[in-house]
Amino acid sequence: MSCSVFADEFAYLDPQHFPAGREVDGFDLLPTTVNFLGLVNGEPAATVRLLFPNADVAARCRTKLGLNIERHLDLQRIRPDMALAEIPRSSVLKPYRRTGIMRHLYFAAYEECLRRGSTHWVAVANTETDCEADASTVLRLLAARGLWLSDFDAKHREPGRPTMASRYPLYTEAQRDQVRQGNIAGIMLPRTLELFASKVGVRYFGSPFFDGDFRMFAIPLIMHMPDFAAAPYGSLTEAA
């Protein structure tokens, strides 16, 4: 399903890398991975993948938790009171967007996290641009609006860089200059980042990095589990 959405529909992923029409990796085979599938009339409509720390992966990759996000971030110095779980990907087919189906899947993931003692979700959010200047503008907007955690201690690993001209610019050069000068009036965040922050209480940390698989810039996010439980139904439906 992820391949249908992110390769076939949005063209973020290169379809030639997925000849079988499925996006899978080694995490899908681990006992610390839980996949949630939403069905409508017996047909797949949405999916969420949830990762918990895996000691074997951590030892093999020399990371702290053995999570997928650690391909991009060094989490060795996260606060000891944080028990992290990761949602590395979720997708919903176009006819079922804003129907509420993702809320049911996220709540199933939330209940599984409570059962296992997780306190926070981490993930990476698509900035909806492959333009480095616009990704930097997004970071400035997040910081100016108090949606970016400057004190969250997670260091980036070696970032990738775009290898082709931008396909998805967000802002004009005049808008970038305006934000650089500290004036954010009338300049909007990407829709997904805005919704997750304003409706679900997500906060962002680190800095944007180029995801070579999706060929887009992404930024890490974190959410305290009680903030998810407190989000109203309509907000989650809109965000999903």
Q: Oligomeric status of the shown chains?
A: single chain
Helix and strand run: HEEHEEHEHEEHHEEEHH
Q: Compute the number of helices.
A: 8
Point out poorly predicted stretches. Answer: none
* Main CATH class: Alpha Beta
**At the third CATH level, what is the topology name?**
Aminopeptidase
The pLDDT mean sits at 86
What's the total number of strands? Answer: 10
Q: What percentage of amino acids are in beta strands?
A: 15-25%
CATH architecture: 3-Layer(aba) Sandwich
Describe the structure.
This protein is of the alpha+beta class and 240 residues long. It has a single domain, classed as Gcn5-related N-acetyltransferase (GNAT) (Aminopeptidase, 3-Layer(aba) Sandwich), CATH 3.40.630.30. Helix content is 31%, strand content 22%. It is built from eight helices and ten strands. Strands 1, 2, 4, 5, 6, 8, 9 and 10 form an eight-stranded mixed beta sheet that branches. Strand 1 and strand 2 form a beta hairpin. Helix 6 (191-200) runs antiparallel to helix 8 (233-239). It is globular and about 50 Å long.
Furnish the topology, listing elements before pairings.
Layout: H1 2-9, E1 33-40, E2 43-51, H2 55-61, E3 73-74, E4 84-92, H3 101-116, E5 120-126, H4 132-144, E6 148-149, E7 155-156, H5 173-180, H6 191-200, E8 203-205, E9 209-211, E10 216-224, H7 225-230, H8 233-239
Parallel strand pairs: 4-5, 6-8
Antiparallel strand pairs: 1-2, 2-4, 3-7, 5-10, 8-10, 9-10
Helix pairs in contact: 6-8
